[in-house]
Amino acid sequence: MQRTDFSAMACSIARTLDVIGEPWSPLVLRDVWVGLTRFEQIQADLGISRKVLTERLNHLVEHGVLERRPYDRRPRYEYVLTSKGTELVDLLMVMAGWGDRWRAGEAGPPVLYRHRACGEISRVDLRCDHCGSPMHATDIDVLPGPGAP
Amino acid sequence: MQRTDFSAMACSIARTLDVIGEPWSPLVLRDVWVGLTRFEQIQADLGISRKVLTERLNHLVEHGVLERRPYDRRPRYEYVLTSKGTELVDLLMVMAGWGDRWRAGEAGPPVLYRHRACGEISRVDLRCDHCGSPMHATDIDVLPGPGAP
DNA sequence: CAGGCTGGGTTTCCTGAGGGAACCCCAAGG
DNA sequence: CCTTGGGGTTCCCTCAGGAAACCCAGCCTG
């Protein structure tokens, strides 16, 4: 985990990292996303230490990214994505896209994504929400915003 | 940082985290992106320990995300994004988008992005690279790919 | 041409987070 | 009752992060 507290920085990247920047957090989120929603399942899938998994889950719940809820009359719980968390999955998809492109190697990507709307195996692409044309790092200017320091 | 080695996992998210998952790495990348390309600049801007900054920069260079190059006949160096690194900035933009939306608070986002193609202050949106319609976490099915374990 | 200055690190030491394994609690079920 | 299994806690050890001091190679200045 980061020792330094990122949440105080006037930077939305740092603030996002404050929520999912700790080691394992994105992978925990991915597991919940693909349907591994219980402590034992996630622990077994990732091989993460139980202590750390407890910490991560609590942190994600505190930040409103996951919701912890009982699924039995016994004390059994599962973790589900909130809408805030579901939007974080977009980030995971972009991460996966980069990994697919640059680190998949000979074997090719371990998973494929099928877009339900068109039925095609496709990749995610970044577009401008105004004009709809591609919007990548080199296509933009960065300006100070209202919350600038 | 993570003790566990993510690079061996058959997961493109984990493989991406192996490159930029360590604390500070995304912020180092952001700094280089916005033009803080020298050791002293980055160190001063982030307040990161010099030791850790050295490690992160070396790691990013080893992975071909940054390139280290001299800018003087004295032993002075600057770090610049490779194309592999520039594509990672897309990830930073999505991160910033989430932080803007969920954690900016009253003050509003600290920075704005102007899309050069249309001139508008806009946000990045995820689209299907086939059909061009929105492609978010809930719009896709995940299937095993050729590199599946 | 000795001494400073500057950028870019390296070293040292201390603390605390991650890993691993053992332990614990509670509610069924047999 | 005793076991089983999910969901955690506790303990201990090691190693990564933070802070600050130190180092070195070239200009630059007196």
TrEMBL record, chains A, B:
This is Transcriptional regulator, HxlR family. Keywords: DNA-binding, Transcription, Transcription regulation. It holds the Pfam family HxlR. Gene3D superfamilies: Winged helix-like DNA-binding domain superfamily/Winged helix DNA-binding domain. InterPro entries: HTH_HxlR, WH-like_DNA-bd_sf, WH_DNA-bd_sf. The keyword DNA-binding applies. The keyword Hydrolase does not apply. Residues 11-107 form the HTH hxlR-type domain. PROSITE patterns: HTH_HXLR. It comes from Actinokineospora diospyrosa.
